[in-house]
Structures are given as structure tokens and as C-alpha cells.
ABC transporter permease (Isoptericola cucumis), 330 residues
Amino acid sequence: MTRGSRALVVLLGATALLVVVAVVSLFAGSKDTGLTDVLPVLAGGGDEYVQAVVDSRVARTALGALVGAALAASGVIVQGITRNPLGEPGLLGVTVGASAAVVTATAFFGFTGGGATVWVALPGAAVAVLAVVTLGRRSGSESVVPLVLAGAVLSAVLGAYIQAMVLARPDVFDSYRHWVVGSLAGADLQTLQAVAPAAIAGAVLALVLASSLDSLALGDELATSLGVRVPLVRGAGIAAATLLAAAATAAAGPVAFVGLAVPHVVRALVGTDHRWQLPVSFVLGAALLVAADVAGRVVARPGELMVGVVTAFVGAPFLLAAVRRGRVTT
């Protein structure tokens, strides 16, 4: 079997997995609902209460798929443009920028959370990435090292600011403490509609850059000799990763390990070709996040574990195993 054929099989398998977990997500949850309850609702009838439950599950399943796909693909891009196997969206300041924006709105403007989180978190993430890129370019070097260092510095500063505000105003951060863990609870289609344009734009840009990202992985000098405009590709890659990660973070909060772990799984399955890595990461990331959400709803009945907690529990052991086996590769 050729590499392309194998990658196609993996993509089809990931798609089938996504379909299965999406269907399970409609039936499984903190409330007991069986086939006889859900099927009438899907057919356009059924009990009003069950209809409301199924409608909420449809929204959180769709939003979970978008968040998982966006985080996974963003991780692939970040690891590609930085050639760092431990790269993930937070490396660019996306997560901490969104969090700082939500904290500021909560503390100074009486922000109470809900769907409006998107309109606060999205610009916060964008401003943070712009600051990281600006600081990284001041060195005059085309290396990615200043960019990574700038991201680390900004994350440390904004992280300290967030902790200071939370400690100073604990009474106003009830909504924030749920959002910051990463959760799909209360997801609605309005949130999906708000973040979808940014996610779609990031996805399209990422797919356009796929071939150039392959060349970039060979090193800046060799990529330049192959005709790749390295600064342009790196800048466009940062823009694509920012759009994807900002949309995901704004919708569900900082969800851990998806953007870090999924790219390693994808590379192990389809190799280093970004033309296959990106489509597979979209589908596999969506499937894994929806599955994590289902697990969080089922294992803690009648309550639920937030999806960010589940992905951290699953992602941390995986990453440790990958490092110990020497399989963390770019």
C-alpha cells in the first residue's frame, strides 16, 4: 500500500469514527435518554423536554467538532512553522491572550460570560499574537527562536496578570472559572455561528499553505532555494493558526493537549506530508474532542466533567509515553 493510499484509509477511518461519536453524542449524556426517546425527536416529534435535551446535544456536538478540528490543525501548523515537536497554539499567546481579555472584561466591565465570551476572547487572542509577532521581529532575525521566546515572555506576563486579577476579585469570576477549564456546557448554535467564519478562514488558509509547510520543514535555507518565500509562508501560517486557535478558545475556553497531542498521532498515521496531515487532523481532532465530551458527560452522571479536564487526563499520559519512547518527532 502506497503512502497516499494509507493516508486515504486513515482519513476515511477518522471520518467514520467522527460519525460514530457524533451519533453517540446525541444519545449519551448526564440524563438517561434511549433510542425510543431520541429517535422521535430526530424525526420531528417527541417529548418537548427530550427535544430540548437533544437540541442542546446537537449544538454542543457541532461546536465540539469545530473546536477539536481547529485546535488539532492549529497544532499541526504551529509545530510545522516552528519545527518544534512541543509546539501548540498557546506558544503564540492565543490562549493566554483570550483568557486575559475575558478576565479584563469581567473585572472592569461587569462581563458575565455566556455567548458574548466569543466577542471578548477573539480580539484578545488576536492582539496577543500580534504582540508576540511584533516582539519576535524586533530582533531582526528570521529565526523562529525570537518568536517562541516572545510567546513565552508574553504568556508569563499575562498569566501573572490573570492570577492577580482572579485573586483580587474572586467574587466576579464565577463564570470565568468555568470557561478557563475548557467546557462545552451551555453551547449553542449562536456561538457556533460567531466563531465559524474565523475557523473556516483559518482552515482554508492552512490547506492553501500545506505544500509550502512541507518545504519549510526542510529548513529556511533549503525552502528558499526551492522557491518558497519563507517570511510570507511563516506569517500566513501564524495567521491561519491564530484564526483556528482563537475561534476554538473563544468558543470553549482553553482546552488542553488537543493541539499538542493530535499532531503527533496524525504524523504517526500518515507521515510528514502536510497535505494529508491537515485534513486528517481536522477530522481526528473533531472526533477526539466530541468523544472526550461524551466521556465527561457519562462518567460523572448526573453531573459532568468539563471537556478540558478529560483531554488533560488523556493527553498528559499520551505525551509522556511519546516522549519516553522517543516518538516526539517533527
